[in-house]
Task: inverse folding
């Protein structure tokens, strides 16, 4: 609703607030002008990150870390509900241990960081700062798994890993980053494969429900799968600029690692067997995904489930009798069903509006003298700026309803963006024409040949995002080579 009180003191305040807001917003680059700079501006000006003295190592500030904590809480609850337990593995891996699985070590070798000194003494063996922990879990399981009764092992750890990336960006690609890595061990192939798909679905459900971010579920090609894995499953999200972001992966290893690390168990048949292994993970990259999926030129727009502050209460004309007291009272009541912040600072209301909009708080509650007289307040949604008058007696139902409406709308807008940026093509000429004019997903058939996958990358600049579980038949042949093709692939430019 729009206000019809432009000449009242409150209306004047809102006019001043608008001017203050405009001045504040100028600090963020418009995404249409430079999307990459817009992203960096949001990360720093919304106080999510700071840069450390070591390239590629970022400082998560309290507000940025709080978003990750909320994601962590959601996922950790789902992991535990499916029988997984949290553990903690060492951060250093002996080189000899890492080298036991050839494909795995070769895949990570270019990104490994090494410790060679302990104090003033040279170590007898190089130690790798963990890029991932498959090898550590396998070594542990070789000591504790003896019988089928010890299986399954359903483990997860929350930790940081280090990968010495050449190019780095906050949340999207860092040399050190926070993540969770699940590692499980099973008696049968069927159980392990079921696990990989179950965990992928947990990731997908979290992205779509709590993060309001639609994803495509599918298989990675052999070229793009995890080093050492037999199969890698992925969820792919589309950012506001049409680029893809791999948002979570789940890997099936078969018994490759258990054979390499001599993990065995005595089965029900009293014979020795090698168990089957999985791993799965998401990282703080999800925070970057939230920013680029939902944000606008004014900053963040956070889905309510992971917003550190879901409602900010801003008193208007706080010096007037009863306003500050009522604002504090409302904040106290709201705290029982939502994460709330009372902004009773001496900053101008307009500055407050701009600041909390930049930080993506889903809902703003304004209350002033006129509102007190009418036993009402104003609720303002961050995404649409829609303003509604709400009775103070109805806040307990109105606030959750507004938050849920915002979540649904965020999801629908993100889905609409993906749909309008997805095209089908049957020839290379069509692919090249579409890629030249647009950024988004291009769907084609594919013969399965690596040469054709490389051709798509070299000639068009597109990488395979996934072979979706929901397949479509677009044509009978691969557009790259003209040979028969039965698999549809999503191609795109990825972060």
Result:
């Amino acid at each position: 609703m729009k206000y019809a009180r432009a000449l009242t003191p409150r209306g004047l305040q809102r006019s001043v607030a608008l001017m203050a807001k405009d001045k504040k917003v100028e600090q963020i680059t418009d995404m249409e002008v430079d999307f990459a700079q817009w992203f960096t501006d949001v990360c720093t000006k919304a106080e999510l990150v700071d840069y450390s003295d070591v390239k590629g190592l970022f400082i998560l500030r309290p507000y940025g870390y709080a978003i990750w904590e909320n994601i962590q809480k959601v996922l950790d609850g789902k992991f535990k509900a499916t029988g997984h337990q949290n553990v903690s593995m060492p951060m250093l891996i002996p080189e000899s241990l890492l080298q036991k699985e050839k494909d795995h070590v070769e895949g990570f070798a270019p990104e490994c960081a090494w410790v060679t000194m302990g104090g003033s003494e040279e170590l007898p063996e190089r130690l790798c700062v963990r890029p991932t922990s498959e090898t550590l879990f396998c070594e542990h399981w070789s000591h504790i798994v003896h019988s089928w009764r010890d299986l399954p092992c359903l483990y997860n750890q929350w930790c940081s890993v280090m990968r010495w990336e050449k190019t780095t960006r906050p949340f999207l690609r860092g040399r050190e980053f926070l993540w969770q890595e699940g590692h499980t061990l099973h008696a049968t192939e069927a159980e392990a494969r079921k696990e990989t798909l179950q965990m992928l679905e947990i990731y997908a459900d979290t992205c779509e429900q709590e993060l309001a971010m639609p994803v495509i579920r599918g298989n990675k090609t052999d070229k793009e799968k995890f080093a050492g894995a037999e199969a890698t499953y992925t969820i792919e999200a589309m950012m506001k600029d049409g680029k893809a972001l791999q948002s979570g992966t789940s890997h099936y290893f078969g018994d490759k690692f258990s054979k390499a690390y001599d993990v065995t168990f005595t089965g029900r048949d009293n014979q020795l067997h090698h168990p089957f292994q999985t791993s799965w993970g998401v990282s703080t990259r999800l925070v970057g995904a939230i920013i680029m999926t939902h944000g606008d030129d004014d900053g963040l727009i956070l889905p309510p489930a992971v917003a550190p502050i879901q409602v900010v209460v801003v008193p208007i004309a706080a010096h007037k009798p009863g306003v500050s007291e009522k604002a504090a009272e409302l904040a106290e009541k709201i705290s029982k069903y939502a994460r709330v912040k009372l902004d009773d600072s001496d900053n101008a209301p307009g500055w407050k509006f701009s600041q909390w909009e930049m930080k993506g708080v889903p809902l703003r509650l304004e209350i002033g003298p006129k509102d007190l007289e009418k036993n009402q307040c104003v609720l303002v949604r961050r995404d649409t700026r829609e303003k509604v008058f709400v009775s103070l007696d109805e806040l307990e139902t109105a606030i959750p309803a507004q938050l849920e409406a915002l979540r649904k709308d965020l999801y629908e807008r993100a889905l609409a963006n993906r749909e309008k940026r997805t095209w089908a093509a049957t020839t290379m000429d069509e692919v090249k024409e579409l890629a030249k004019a647009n950024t988004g997903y291009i769907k084609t058939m594919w013969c399965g040949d690596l040469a054709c996958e490389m051709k798509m990358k070299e000639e068009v600049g597109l990488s395979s995002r996934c072979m979706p579980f929901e397949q479509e038949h677009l044509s009978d042949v691969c557009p790259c080579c003209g040979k028969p093709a039965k698999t549809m692939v999503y191609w795109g430019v990825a972060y």
Remarks:
- The longest helix spans residues 395-420.
- Residues 39 and 292 are 7 Å apart (CA to CA).
- The chain has 15 helices and 23 strands.
- The radius of gyration is 26 Å.
